[in-house]
Amino acid sequence: MIEEFKALLVGKFENKLQAFKNPSKFAYIRITHVDIGDGLYYGEQAYNYNLKSPYRQFILEPIQEENQIRILNYEVEDKNQFKNCQNLDKIDRSMLKLKSGCDVVVTQDGGSFKGGLTGCDCHVDWMGRDTYLQNQIELTPDFYYVIDKGFCAKDNHQLWGSKYGRFEFARMPV
To answer: Domain 2-171 belongs to what architecture?
Structure first.
């Protein structure tokens, strides 16, 4: 199960069709996941108009736990040196900081993996405000569906993220 998940995770994904169909509701975004060894995966998210400046960089570590996969999320020190998937061979575990409360748990459902993150424990600084993330994902051989929502830690109202349903990222050709 874990090897199938890892194989589906690696690659580039974009929501071009969705963004062109509904430009006022969905930004055109590209997501990249690269296997960097030692069970770790480097990821970037960038707006298509600004691919050289990703707005999010992260490290993932999928771990199988019985009939589910827990995906640990890490921040990486000095992430600017890794922009556009550069110097990835220089990343080692000493540079990583686990994002406490931000584990995503997925289960296999046929040929896809579904799950997410609930609760209020995954804190994200958004424009100087303390927010918490909730999300749902589905990873298939051809698509990566994502709903990310950020809520104000003080009053629980949504401040950022998807308001019009899930993002539909199609796997890009290699």
So the answer is: Beta Barrel (2.40)
In the 3-class helix/strand/coil scheme, how is the chain assigned residue by residue?
CHHHHHHHHCEEEECHHHHHHCCCCCCCEEEEEEEEECCEEEEEEEEHHHCCCCCEEEEEEEEEECCEEEEEEEEECCHHHHHHHCCHHHCCHHHEEECCCCCEEEEEECCEEEEEECCCCCEEEECCEEEEEEEEEEECCCEEEEEEEEEECCCCCEEEECCCCCEEEEECCC
0.85 surpassed by pTM: yes
Q: How many CA atoms lie within 13 A of 112 on its CB side?
A: 10
Structure token digits, residue 153: 């830690």
For residue 167, what are the CA distances in angstroms to 31, 41, 94, 99, 144? 11, 21, 33, 23, 8
Distance CA 77, CA 82 (A): 10
What is the domain partition of the chain in residue ranges?
2-171
Q: Measured between alpha carbons, how far is 33 from 45 in angstroms, rounded to an integer?
A: 9
**Residue closest to 79 by CA, chosen among 46, 55, 98, 104:** 55
Is 168 a residue whose pLDDT tops 90? yes
Q: What's the token pair of residue 110? A: 């046929």
Q: Which residues pair with 57 in a beta bridge?
A: 44
What's the pLDDT tens digit per position in 86-99? 999 999 999 999 99
